[in-house]
Amino acid sequence: MKYLSFILILLPCQVALSQEIAYPLAIGDRWMYSVEGITAKTVEITGDTVMSNGKQYQVLTGLDEQFQRFEDNKVFVYDPNIESERLQYDFTVAPGDTILTYVLGQDTADIVFLYFENTFTYGAWRQRFWFNYEIRHETDLGWSNAITDSIGLDVHTAFAGWFYSILYEKLRLSVHPFLTQIYL
C-alpha cells in the first residue's frame, strides 16, 4: 500500500510536467512590467530572424535575452556575441534539476527549475513554473523567474545573495501582457 501511495503522489507531478505548454512568441506580443504601479520595463516581440546556426528566433526588444525560440517545451536564447544558443527554460525536467551551468564573466551561473504551481490568473487555471538563477563566486546574487503557461514571464524576483544578506532587497515585478492570443 505504501508503494501504491507513492506512485499516486508522483503521478500528478509527472503528468503536469509532461504536458505541452504555450510559451507566447507571436509578433506583436507585448508585456509591461511594473513595480508598485510604475512601469519599469516594456518587452515586445517585433519580428523574427534566422541566426548563423540556421534556426529562426523571435526578436524581443527591451530584454537582455533578445533572440528566443520555443521548441519541445524548451526555450532557447541565442547570443550573437558568441554565435551560439543556450537553454533558458526547460518545462520537462523535475523540480530541483539544474537546467544549465554556464560561465558569466568571473562567476558561474546555474539555472535551476524550482517547482510548478497551479494558479488562477487571466481568467483561467494555469501552470506557473519557477526557475532560479544562482550566480556565485565574485558577485553571489540571484533572481527567480516565473513563467506562466500562455502568458510568459509574469513574475521576476531579484535578491542580493549571501554576501549582501544584511542589505537584503526583494524586487517583485507585476506584468500586464498584451498578447495576440491568450489560451483559455
Distance between the termini: 38 Å
**Class of secondary structure makeup:** mainly beta
- Counted by DSSP, the helix tally is 1
Major β-sheet annotation: 12 strands, antiparallel
Overall mean pLDDT score? 75
Describe how the helices and strands are arranged.
Layout: H1 2-18, E1 30-35, E2 38-50, E3 56-61, E4 67-71, E5 74-79, E6 84-90, E7 98-104, E8 107-121, E9 124-136, E10 141-148, E11 152-160, E12 170-178
Antiparallel strand pairs: 1-2, 1-12, 2-3, 3-4, 4-5, 5-6, 7-8, 8-9, 9-10, 10-11, 11-12
Summarize the model shown.
The protein is mostly beta strands. The chain has one helix spanning 2-18, and strands spanning 30-35, 38-50, 56-61, 67-71, 74-79, 84-90, 98-104, 107-121, 124-136, 141-148, 152-160, 170-178.
Q: Could you please describe the fold and organization of this structure?
A:
The chain has one helix at 2-18, and strands at 30-35, 38-50, 56-61, 67-71, 74-79, 84-90, 98-104, 107-121, 124-136, 141-148, 152-160, 170-178. With 184 residues, the protein is mainly β. The chain has one domain (21-178). The N and C termini lie far apart (38 Å).
Task: List key phrases describing it.
184 residues, mainly beta, 12-stranded antiparallel sheet, 1 helix, 9% helix, globular
